[in-house]
Design brief:
The chain is α/β, with parallel strands linked by helices. The chain is built from eleven helices and twelve strands. The chain is 35% helix and 14% strand.
Length: 356
């Protein structure tokens, strides 16, 4: 086990630069920007580079680190690496952190390595805790809806995670509006209500604002459900897997996510998306922001959105993203102009769960 290294957090990390927003009607607050460990904390990224990002995040007031059992690559390595970071940098700071993980996607071979069964969710959470060297996580999510498992079983596993002390709160990720409504009713009856939903959302992926297209016609939006139920949302992929940074306007450079990440689809770089990104970048420049900063500010404009979940490949990139907090206001004219170009770009690779 690694011995804790010398990390003295910035004493001004809570001086007001980072807003902390309440999760709906729950008591828990999250930073307006949270750090996701999806792509840049597996074994392909040097450990000291990861450490620099995490330490800078904490100094910037980012107290929430988000993981999942399958994050890497390879699967599981992000949690294992994060456990080493906890021991080195945050061993004495656990009470100042909100740490989340999830289970739902495939994480190990065989019939019990994915889905929404009680066995998979609880076994996965136990493995996650061992990897990270933690006694509990603050939030445990059902990572996606499993149509082959009764929702009562999946929600019962989340309830058990809290009652057994393995988690403080539970949440849902990528559930559609009606599935969210049904899951919340089960959890409420069990006595462990969910407090958070983690959907994908960006200017090129606005599904949470769209009425659910059910068999009987348009229904509620996910935003409607969350507002009515009193949940907060933490939106992932607000930069549309890097499209809304503008770095792909001139092609794909070596080392960027599009050149290696399995979540990338080459058809995302279509002419319509590129034209819309250029127009959005022009609006951002008029606001005195980078496109990435405006993209993060834009998702935070919705009252149900508590936090924007971002990734980072360097401390400098994270600092630029946090700069979004300097200008979170949008007037009606600017929002209308953004709407002209904030069109679906085919970037919701999780739509099978979100729309079903």
């Amino acid at each position: 086990m690694l011995i804790s290294s010398q990390f003295t957090p910035d004493p001004g990390r809570y001086d007001g630069r980072m807003p902390y927003r309440r999760l709906g009607r729950a008591g828990l607050r999250l930073p307006a920007i949270s750090l996701g460990l999806w792509q840049n904390f597996g074994d392909r990224v040097p450990f000291d580079q990861q450490e620099a990002i995490l330490r800078r995040a904490f100094d910037l007031g980012i107290t929430h680190f988000d993981l999942a059992n399958n994050y890497g690559p390879p699967s599981g390595s992000a949690e294992a690496n994060f456990g080493r970071h906890m021991a080195r940098s945050f061993a004495d700071l656990r009470e100042e952190l909100v740490i989340s993980t999830k289970a739902g996607y495939r994480c190990w071979p065989g019939p019990y390595g994915e889905g929404g069964s009680r066995k998979y969710l609880i076994d996965s959470l136990d493995v996650s805790l061992r990897r990270m060297g933690l006694d509990y996580v603050d939030i445990f999510y059902s990572h996606r809806f499993d149509p082959e498992t009764p929702p009562e079983e999946t929600m019962g596993a989340l309830d058990y995670a809290v009652r057994s002390g393995r988690a403080r709160y539970v949440g849902l990720s990528s559930y559609s509006a009606p599935r969210t409504r049904a899951a919340l009713a089960i959890l409420r009856d069990l006595g462990t209500p969910a407090v958070i939903h983690q959907p994908s959302y960006s200017m090129l992926n606005r599904w949470i604002e769209e009425p659910y297209a059910g068999e009987t016609g348009p229904g509620e939006t996910l935003v409607d459900v969350l507002a009515d139920e009193g949940l907060g949302a933490i939106t992932y992929s607000p930069l549309a897997q890097g499209l809304l940074t503008g770095k792909y306007l001139d092609g794909v450079a070596d080392g960027t996510r599009a050149s290696w990440a399995p979540s990338w689809r080459d058809n995302m770089l279509n002419q319509s998306n590129l034209d819309n990104v250029r127009s959005l970048a022009a609006i951002a420049a008029e606001r005195g922001q980078t496109l990435a900063q405006m993209a993060v500010a834009w998702v935070l404009r919705l009252p149900v959105v508590t936090s924007a979940l971002v990734g980072a490949s360097s401390p400098e990139q994270l600092e630029d993203t946090v700069g979004a907090l300097r200008n979170l206001d949008f007037d009606a004219t600017t929002l209308a102009r953004i709407d002209e170009y904030a069109k679906d770009g085919g970037v919701n690779i999780w739509s099978q769960s979100s729309f079903a």
